[in-house]
Design goal:
The chain has six helices and five strands; from the N terminus they run H-H-E-E-E-E-E-H-H-H-H. It has 169 residues and is an alpha+beta fold.
Length: 169
């Protein structure tokens, strides 16, 4: 019987506000949002943009794991994928899981496509000679073989000796 009056006389815990009790839960939700939800939304947005930009010639992977190249874009919901020579399958766009390789957009005119391509060899591109600079310098440059032949004169060896002969006089 003495126990109940003791509990009644004890001071109760202070009534804490509802915000203090909810603060840890709010903090956990904010951490989850920045670590899990937001990155997933970015991935989904990028995937939607990639799927919307599919064109003919792109290499894709379907949801079932089949790899093929897009033969034709039928409409906004379907594409025709060629999985082997003369084997074409219609696939829904939303079931394409990844685009493995994208094709470059075609130039509108053939002359514009030729202007973008660098002319000349690898050395010209590495040394910084553009097409216009290479054309200017073509007349003044000699072939590598001609330069090599003029820089080192041919020496005739007599009697099979490797060492050059010295004059005795």
């Amino acid at each position: 019987m003495f126990i109940s009056p003791a509990y009644a006389q004890a001071s109760g815990g202070g009534a804490s506000g509802g915000l203090e009790a909810m603060l840890p839960l709010i903090l956990i939700f904010v951490v989850f949002y920045f670590l899990l939800i937001r990155p997933q939304q970015k991935k989904m947005k990028l995937h939607r943009q990639t799927i919307a930009a599919i064109r003919r010639g792109d290499k894709v992977v379907t949801g079932g794991g089949i790899i093929g190249s897009v033969a034709k874009v039928d409409n906004e919901h379907e594409v025709t994928v060629e999985i082997a020579k003369d084997v074409k399958v219609k696939v829904r766009r939303d079931l394409i899981s990844a685009v493995v390789s994208k094709t470059e957009p075609q130039a509108s005119t053939p002359s514009a496509a030729n202007e973008d391509k660098p002319r000349g060899g690898i050395l010209q591109n590495l040394l910084g000679f553009g097409p216009k600079q290479a054309d200017k310098n073509e007349g003044s440059n000699k072939s590598a073989a001609a330069v090599k032949n003029k820089s080192k004169p041919a020496v005739k060896k007599e009697n099979g000796d490797d060492a050059p002969k010295k004059n005795a006089s």
